[in-house]
């Protein structure tokens, strides 16, 4: 499974809770949450292709074949969520808001569907690693469905807080991924073929994911505060 950006231990998941993974993509956080605790885990995305992949991945885990643990994957728009008010105990929105021109429509919907006192976890690309990518390559952010803005973390935090959410933790993640994206941008090729150096670094990341050696875990921990590719926020919804 893909490396999660959100630290699920910060969500305090308990049996029976309802969790929404908004903009779930291929379901990395949706599936991980369902594996962590016996909860109702729902992933929502606009991409039918990604949702089909997410459903297929459920078959890789026997516990998720049980009806009460199987995540639900729903096609839908985050600006108009097909759920009633105060439906979810926990909401995740990871690496999504930077793609949305009117991202505040997502924040309004998140506030509507989360229960009072619930936890909302959000992540976006960190300013400096993202700024370097934009400087190195226009196609990186000009592709269809690409990033439409670079967030400054404190400004985004204030924006989310304006909806009544109170942040209780923040951290950065995936420092070792930042150089990979810088290399991709530096050697960007429109035909999908990658430079040998990009391929070599990608193999390193796959090896790290599969083996989790202490040296890369240590490097990631040391470098995250400075080079973490993502910044992650955890908020408590108003009571």
Notes on the structure:
The protein is of the alpha/beta class and 239 residues long. It has a domain at 8-126 and 144-175 and 229-236: Rossmann fold (3-Layer(aba) Sandwich), CATH 3.40.50.150. It has helices at 28-36, 48-57, 103-113, 127-136, 139-142, 153-161, 177-186, 196-211, 214-227, and strands at 18-22, 40-45, 72-75, 88-94, 114-125, 166-173, 230-236. It has a seven-stranded mixed beta sheet, sandwiched between helices. β1 (18-22), α1 and β2 (40-45) form a beta-alpha-beta unit. The two termini are 35 Å apart. The model has no long low-confidence stretch (mean pLDDT 94).
- The CATH superfamily of the domain at 8-126 and 144-175 and 229-236 bears the name Vaccinia Virus protein VP39
The overall pLDDT average reads 94
The description of the largest β-sheet is: 7 strands, mixed
Give, in spatial order, the strands making up the sheet with the most strands: 3-2-1-4-5-7-6
- Structural shape: globular
- Report the uncertain regions: none
H and E order: EHEHEEHEHHHEHHHE
Structural class: alpha/beta
- In whole angstroms, the N-to-C terminal distance is 35 Å
Q: Could you tell me the number of beta strands?
A: 7
CATH fold call of the domain at 8-126 and 144-175 and 229-236: Rossmann fold
Instruction: Give Rg in angstroms.
Output: 18 Å
User: Helical amount among residues, as a percent range?
Assistant: 25-40%
What is the overall number of helices?
9
Instruction: Just name the CATH architecture of the domain at 8-126 and 144-175 and 229-236.
Output: 3-Layer(aba) Sandwich
């Amino acid at each position: 499974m893909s490396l999660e950006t959100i630290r699920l231990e910060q969500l305090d998941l308990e049996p029976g809770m309802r969790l929404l993974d908004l903009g779930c993509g291929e379901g990395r956080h949706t599936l991980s949450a369902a594996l962590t605790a016996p909860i109702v885990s729902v992933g929502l995305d606009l991409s039918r292709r990604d949702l089909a992949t997410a459903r297929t991945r459920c078959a890789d885990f026997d516990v998720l074949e049980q009806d009460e643990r199987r995540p639900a994957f729903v096609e839908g728009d985050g600006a108009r969520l097909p759920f009633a008010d105060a439906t979810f105990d926990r909401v995740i929105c990871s690496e999504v808001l930077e793609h949305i021109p009117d991202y505040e429509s997502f924040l309004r919907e998140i506030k509507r569907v989360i229960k009072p006192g619930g936890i909302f976890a959000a992540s976006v690309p960190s300013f400096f690693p993202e700024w370097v990518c934009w400087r190195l390559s226009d196609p990186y952010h000009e592709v269809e469905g690409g990033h439409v803005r670079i967030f400054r973390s404190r400004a985004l935090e204030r924006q989310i807080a304006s909806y009544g959410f109170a942040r209780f933790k923040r951290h950065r993640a995936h420092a070792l991924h930042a150089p990979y994206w810088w290399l991709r941008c530096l050697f960007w090729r429109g035909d999908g073929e990658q430079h040998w150096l990009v391929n070599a670094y990608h193999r390193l990341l796959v090896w790290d994911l599969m083996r989790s050696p202490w040296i890369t875990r240590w490097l990631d921990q040391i470098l995250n505060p400075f080079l973490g590719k993502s910044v992650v926020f955890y908020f408590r919804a108003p009571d």
